[in-house]
Write a structure and sequence with these properties.
Blueprint (H helix, E strand, L loop, with lengths): L7 H6 L5 E5 L4 E4 L5 E4 L7 E3 L7 H8 L3 E6 L3 H4 L6 E4 L7 H15 L7 H37 L8 E2 L4 H30 L10 H7 L6 H12 L1 H14 L12 E6 L7 E5 L1 E4 L17 H16 L1 E3 H23 L21
Antiparallel strand pairs: 1-2, 1-5, 2-3, 3-4, 5-6, 7-8, 8-9, 10-11
Length: about 375
């Protein structure tokens, strides 16, 4: 483990909190005051390092080098460093910042503001949307952790880091479990947002729309531009892609059986001005985010030609595929953006709740 602990006062004192930046492929960038930024996996010698930039410039520096940021863990105290307490996690979406956490807070504020209204239906739905956003953000962190463990074991066992090839190991089951859990929970948030779209954007007369499917059925004649944009995505865009993949995994085959094989690929990540560093790639969908259905997932292992054809088909798909972790990260960004669009379309306000002591009461301040 990278030793980031200096003392409690320093870790709590200001902006320079130690950070573990989760990168695509299971990699980490370790940012600790007084040390170079190191890129690699925890517990093994980090092959890349560079002088630590200003605290506010690290993300831009990593992106300029060609790294893809999944999220960041902030370490506030010794309990977090020693894994007694969970670290403060923020999932990052491309061009959207911490959209899951930020948007979750907006919906939490809406729930708080409408909690005592005569009809607290809005409060309940806003609370569910907020909880689902936070849960998906956590699912991405869990999947990134599984990637890191899978990559770490592979590199620990590899004699030569340049042996880029397909592989499997004991951590891959945890990776598959992470993808499965993410897709299940993403479907839940999708349906919460469909309910919000019907109840508070379309202002439907009834309150019986609970899924994206029922929203599509009930809004065929809608003239609302926001509703129409949701319909387009649900019929031909990213919502449809998510729905197809989620339904296939939940109702037809598990993640490990989506394609002819279930191997991960060890790939070289070339960062500017540095030698390449190994990263993990698990092919999930094509480059457009659409689910792939092989001609036949079954393989006749007694037929050598059949095995060779299936293997070549899987390799070709992997070369042009979207990685599972990156797909999940991007899907959180899409769902967060949809939550923002619906919230703004309703005109709902989300004032920041402020707790004030009642007149005559005694307030205490912790030092």
């Amino acid at each position: 483990m990278v030793n980031v602990w200096v003392n409690r006062r320093r870790c709590l004192s200001g902006s320079d909190l130690p950070r573990f930046i989760h990168l695509a492929g299971g990699l980490r960038a370790f940012d600790v005051e007084g040390m170079d930024v190191q890129i690699g996996v925890d517990g093994l010698k980090c092959p890349l390092h560079f002088p630590r930039p200003k605290y506010s410039q690290l993300y831009q520096t990593l992106i300029a080098l060609g790294a893809d940021i999944i999220g960041v863990e902030f370490l506030h105290d010794r309990e977090q460093h020693l894994n007694f307490a969970p670290r403060s996690w923020r999932g990052a979406a491309k061009g959207l910042g911490w959209i899951a956490v930020d948007e979750a807070q907006e919906w939490t504020n809406i729930a708080f503001a409408h909690n005592e209204s005569p009809d607290n239906e809005l409060s309940g739905l806003a609370s569910r949307v907020s909880s689902a956003l936070r849960l998906l953000d956590e699912r991405v962190r869990q999947l990134s952790e599984a990637y890191h463990h899978c990559l770490r074991l592979k590199l620990h066992r590899s004699r030569h880091a340049e042996e880029y090839k397909f592989f499997t190991n004991a951590w891959q089951r945890t990776v598959f479990a992470g993808v499965h859990a993410f897709l299940a929970d993403a479907g839940i948030l999708r349906d919460y947002l469909a309910e919000a779209c019907w109840n508070f954007v379309e202002n439907g007369a009834s309150r019986d729309v609970r899924t994206m499917r029922s929203l599509l059925k009930r809004t065929k004649e809608s003239e609302n531009s926001t509703v129409q944009s949701v319909r387009r995505e649900a019929k031909t865009g990213w919502i449809k892609n998510l729905t197809d993949l989620r339904n296939e995994v939940i109702h037809v085959v598990p993640v490990s059986h989506l394609h002819e094989f279930d191997y991960c690929e060890l790939r070289p990540l070339k960062l500017k001005e540095f030698t390449s560093v190994p990263m993990l790639h698990l092919p999930l969908v094509d480059r457009e985010g659409k689910m792939r259905r092989p001609a036949d997932r079954r393989i006749d292992y007694s037929d050598e030609n059949n095995v060779r054809e299936a293997w070549q088909s899987y390799r070709d798909f992997s070369n042009s595929s979207t990685d599972a972790l990156q797909y999940c990260r991007d899907t959180v960004g899409n769902l967060g953006s949809l939550a923002t669009k619906l919230r703004l379309a309703t005109g709902m306000t989300s004032p920041i709740p402020v707790l004030q002591p009642r007149p005559g009461s005694v307030s205490y301040t912790h030092r």
